[in-house]
Specification:
two-stranded antiparallel ribbon; globular; mainly alpha; Preprotein translocase SecY subunit; three-stranded antiparallel β-sheet
């Protein structure tokens, strides 16, 4: 009882500090200001767009719906920030994959400390500009083939690509400013802003199509969404501690070590990246279908028809989505967590896991535990990601359009933001 009272008292003190400390309030205010700027940029339309054909094109296009998740709604409106942070996310995925293929990049990311991470992020930014150019060109080809975009001259096409690239770089810069002068990860906060901005639209659609006879169904949907968010918070924060003991050492007449601590292995070690990986791969057939259907070759047209039908309404799509998320959870965990390097660091610092020999046995022990915890994380992410597809197919209700990906990203960003605010408040208690 007293423990709960103490926790409540600590919580209230931190809340009071957050709302009274000028530094924290200024950081929060800066984040809100950047959100306003970002949303304003999302209202500036690009030239050459046919609004009527754009609406018709977007109504049944899941690929754009997925990308719009990372653009803050700018893509669905084809605004100045149409690409959003999608090029940066794509470049980050490619750079993470290169850490497996190229030893020098792996060394830079894992072994060169903060300087290596800064260099890695710089390369990611340069690659993001290149990806923005490629995505801008692809956007022209795709929208022009659908009659949505009219750019008659080469100069207008180059200007269009330059505009969307500049918008994407501007969004990346806003994200960097949020990371430096605000609270939380800037890129994640922008994605979060895009998710939150879509909620009023979903709610208005639900209110417009409200049917009193389906009230039990609406209540069931809200309960399921609440449970998904609740379980997501628990799994995201869940850890498997590995006990570590530091041996006693005498240096210059002083005794050091002899302490016990632990290494937290998160169940959600890979975060939401596996879902983003899988979603990006599964959109490739949709992209190919848009081009194949415009071809005069009967074989390509037939392939395009098959690819077009390969969407969330297809059972094989849902199954493949589940399998890919499961696979990429293990893959991304293996890329970001090096059990051998951790074992070597423990051995260098005179630390060991009780009951386990230092060196290779410790690395094998940690890898085994990580594999078990990753299994639960992979199953959870896979189920949460495909659950909205299944429920939407069963019920036919649009409230599930929010999707498991959006829920997981929102939960991840919110928990990280709460931790950052708590850390800021704790610093100002002393």
């Amino acid at each position: 009882m007293f423990a709960y009272i103490f926790m409540l008292d600590t919580f209230l003190k931190k809340v009071k500090i957050i709302f009274t400390d000028r530094v924290i309030l200024s950081r929060i205010g800066f984040v809100l200001l950047m959100f306003i700027v970002f949303r304003f940029l999302g209202t500036i339309p690009l030239p050459g767009i046919d609004p009527v054909k754009l609406t018709q094109f977007l109504s049944n296009n899941q690929f754009f719906a997925f990308l719009s998740l990372f653009s803050g709604g700018g893509l669905t409106q084809l605004s100045l920030v149409a690409l959003g942070v999608a090029p940066f996310i794509t470049s980050s995925i490619i750079m993470q994959l290169l850490t497996v293929l190229i030893p020098s990049i792996k060394q830079m990311y894992h072994e060169e400390g903060e300087a290596g991470r800064k260099k890695f992020n710089q390369y990611s930014r340069f690659l993001a500009v290149g990806m923005a150019i490629i995505q801008g060109i692809g956007l022209i080809a795709l929208l022009s083939s659908q009659g949505v975009l009219f750019l008659p001259t080469l100069f207008s096409q180059v200007l269009f690509v330059a505009t969307v690239v500049a918008g994407s770089v501007l969004v990346m810069w806003i994200g960097e400013l949020i990371s430096e002068f605000g609270i939380g990860n800037g890129i994640s906060m922008i994605v979060f802003a895009g998710i939150v901005s879509a909620i009023p639209n979903h709610l208005s659609q639900a209110a417009f199509t409200f049917d009193a006879s389906q009230l039990p169904l609406y209540i069931a949907i809200l309960v399921i969404l609440f449970l998904m968010i609740f379980v997501s918070v628990i799994i995201t924060e869940a850890e498997r501690p590995i006990p570590v003991h530091y041996a006693k050492q005498v240096r210059s007449g002083y005794q050091t070590g002899g302490t016990d601590t632990y290494i937290p292995l998160r169940i959600a070690q890979a975060g939401v990246m596996p879902i983003i990986f899988a979603g990006s791969i599964l959109q490739i057939p949709q992209i190919l279908a848009m081009f194949f259907l415009k071809s005069t070759n009967t074989t390509l047209v037939a392939m395009g028809t098959r690819f077009k039908d390969f969407n969330s309404a297809n059972l094989w799509y849902v199954i493949l989505y589940f399998v890919l998320i499961f696979f990429f959870t293990y893959f991304y965990t293996a890329v970001t967590f090096d059990a051998e390097a951790m074992s070597n660091n423990l051995q260098k610092n005179g630390a060991f896991v009780p009951g386990v020999r230092p060196g290779v046995p410790t690395a094998d022990y940690v890898a085994t535990i990580l594999s078990r915890t990753t299994f639960f994380g992979a199953v959870f992410f896979s189920v949460i990601a495909v659950m909205p597809f299944i429920l939407q197919r069963v019920t036919g209700n649009a409230l599930f359009a929010l999707g498991g990906t959006a829920i997981l990203i929102a939960v991840s960003v919110c928990t990280d933001l709460i931790k950052k605010l708590s850390a800021q408040a704790s610093m100002r208690e002393y």
